[in-house]
Amino acid sequence: MSESTLEALGGNAARPAQYGHDALVVCDNLVRIYQSGSVEVQALQGLDLLVHEGEMVAVVGASGSGKSTLLGVLSGMDAPTAGRVRVGRWDLMAMPARERVTYRRQTVGFVWQQTSRNLLPYLTARQNVALPIASVPRRQRRARAEELLDLVGVGHVADRQPHEMSGGEQQRVAIATALANSPQLLLADEPTGELDTTTTQEVFDTLRTVNREAGTTVVVVTHDHAVSSLVERTVAIRDGRTSSEVLRRESDGDVVHEEYAVMDRAGRLQVPREYREALALTSRVRLVLEADHLAVWRDGGAR
Ligand code: ADP
Ligand code: MG
C-alpha cells in the first residue's frame, strides 16, 4: 500500500490534510460583513472556493452576489470578517499591513472593469507596462514590456497612449501591466464589462493565453454566464456563497459542459429552483442512498 493511501486511511501518525492544502487559493467559510450605519450587509456568507495552481476560473453571479468583495479579499485590499483565506504561503486573514503591501506588489496582478482605472492616460502602453517594474534596469524593462505586449497580442500599440487604443486593446495592455512583476495569481473584476461580445471573446482568449503560456493562475469575475463556453471552469456565486460549477471538457473533438452543484464541507448543497419547482420539493425531502447515487424525494414520496 502506498504511503499516500495509508495517509488517506489515517493509518499514519500524520494529521489529516487541511482543507485545500494543495491549492494555490483557499477560501474556507469566508464571511465579509459590511456595516453601513445601522445596516449590516453580508456580502460573503461562508464562501468556499479552491483554485489550483495553473487553473483559470471564471466567477459568475448576479450583481450584488459578492464577486467584487471576493476579489477585494483575494487581492489583499480588503480583509474578511471571518473564515480562512490563503493564497500560496500568504494567510490573508492574519497578514499585517506591511506584508499586505508586499503581497500586493509581488503575488497578485489586478485588472479592473473600468479601462480608465487600469492605465495612466499620459503614458504609452510600453511605459504603462514597465511602471510596476521600475527597479529593473531600463533596457531589460523595455524588453520585458514588449515581450508582454506581444504575449497579449497588442505589440502594435506599444507607442500609443490609452486614448489612441480601442477598449479591448486597453484591457489587453492592462493585462500585460498586471503581469509585469510576474504574479502567481491574476485577478480581473469584470474586465469586459464595458466591451462588446467580439471584444469580450478577444480579452478572454488573451486571459487563456496568459494562463497557458505564462502559467499564471487566473480568476476572472463576470456577470455574463455565456463565458462558461470560453473557460474550463466556471463557478457561480449566489448570495455570497459558491452554488454551482460548470466544467468544460473536450471529448472526441466535441465540447461538453457538465454542471455540478457545490456541496460545502458540512454537506449542504443548494437544489436549483427549477428542480425544486418541477418536483414540488418543499422544506422536507427524503434522501435515499443508492449504490452509486443519492435520490431526493418529495415529502411523502418514496415509500
Ligand atoms: P458584485 O460584485 O457581485 O456585484 P459586491 O461584492 O460588490 O457584489 O457586493 C456584494 C454586496 O455587498 C452588495 O449587497 C453590496 O451592496 C454590498 N457592498 C459592497 N461593498 C460595500 C461597502 N463598501 N459597504 C457596504 N456594502 C457594500
Ligand atoms: Mg462587482
TrEMBL record:
GO terms for molecular function: ATP binding; ATP hydrolysis activity; transmembrane transporter activity. It comes from Cellulomonas fimi (strain ATCC 484 / DSM 20113 / JCM 1341 / CCUG 24087 / LMG 16345 / NBRC 15513 / NCIMB 8980 / NCTC 7547 / NRS-133). GO terms for cellular component: membrane protein complex; plasma membrane. Gene3D superfamilies: P-loop containing nucleotide triphosphate hydrolases. Keywords: ATP-binding, Nucleotide-binding, Transport. Pfam families: ABC_tran. This is ABC transporter related protein. Residues 25-264 form the ABC transporter domain. InterPro entries: AAA+_ATPase, ABC_transporter-like_ATP-bd, ABC_transporter-like_CS, ABC_transpr_LolD-like, MacB-like_ATP-bd, P-loop_NTPase.
